[in-house]
Amino acid sequence: MPTALITGASSGLGEQFAYALARQSFALVLVARRRERLDAVAARARQIGAPRTDVIELDLAKRESPHALCDQLRTLGLQVDYLVNNAGFGTSGFFHKLDLARELEEIDLNISSLVALTRLLLPAMVERHAGTIINVASTAAFQAIPFMSTYAATKAFVLSFTEGLAGELVGTGLRVMALCPGPVKTEFQTVAKNEKSLMPEFVYVPAEKVVAGAISAAASGRTVYIAGGLNFLGAQMTRLAPRSLINLVSRRIYRPNAD
């Protein structure tokens, strides 16, 4: 039976990936820090159609965690056919005031764990000439974002890394795609502490719709999928408009209420 591993599966896009892939009869390995939430997602996924669910409580921001996760997969006798690198978080505020340890944790989770898991699980996929990898980036990957400087930079890395990897793997039978959602109503805004940004409500796309589009796009062989028509247009504008103008607009949208 095909097996999908989803990181950050306790809520948001990760949770919706679990339900969507359960409907396609994937066995699921759900990874996140919150065991109670993972158990709830696993139970619903089984009701929907997942033939098997395994829950692994793990903090992927720790450098040793990807290796520990792969050790557990071997113990469970599982091979991963579909990898969704979704775990990540953002921070917001004046960079010089932000907690350095938290910024480095953000880099480790958004970048290091994604690279490590991809590297550890990819060889078996290449050997089988089959597999799908979806790396969750963001429309933030297309421009710098003042007051979310670290987050945007991590997502730019994810986008570039994924496009490069996809180029390497042409002809192998693997599908590798960067998912670039724009604003989505999840816990992200609360964690990032930017609930009061000036982002208009109409640009938000439901998490279920983002995931459905991503799965379809990956299956069709897309390398980059930008969720939502307005987000697609916005991403194209960042390529055409002066970077100073894009920076100015972002600065006004994301500037904290008080210095």
How would you characterize the overall build of this protein?
This protein starts with a strand and ends in a 5-residue tail after the last helix. It has 9 helices and 7 strands, in the order βαβαβαβαβαβααβαα. Strand 2 (27-32), helix 2 and strand 3 form a beta-alpha-beta unit. It has one domain: Rossmann fold. It has helices spanning 12-23, 35-48, 65-76, 100-128, 149-168, 188-192, 207-219, 229-240, 243-254; strands at residues 3-7, 27-32, 53-57, 82-85, 131-136, 174-181, 224-227. A 7-stranded parallel β-sheet has the order 3-2-1-4-5-6-7, with helices on both faces. The chain is of the alpha/beta class.
Annotated CATH topology: Rossmann fold
Residue windows where pLDDT falls under 50 for at least 5 positions:
none
* Arrangement of strands in the largest sheet: 3-2-1-4-5-6-7
Alpha-beta content class: alpha/beta
CATH class: Alpha Beta
Distance between the termini: 54 Å
Q: Overall pLDDT, averaged?
A: 89
Please write the string of helix (H) and strand (E) elements.
EHEHEHEHEHEHHEHH
Q: Into which percentage range does the β-strand content fall?
A: 5-15%
Our Rg estimate from Cα atoms comes to: 18 Å
Provide the domain count: 1
Number of separate helices = 9
Number of strands: 7
Instruction: Give the biggest beta sheet.
Output: 7 strands, parallel
Shape: globular
What would CATH call the architecture? 3-Layer(aba) Sandwich
CATH superfamily: NAD(P)-binding Rossmann-like Domain
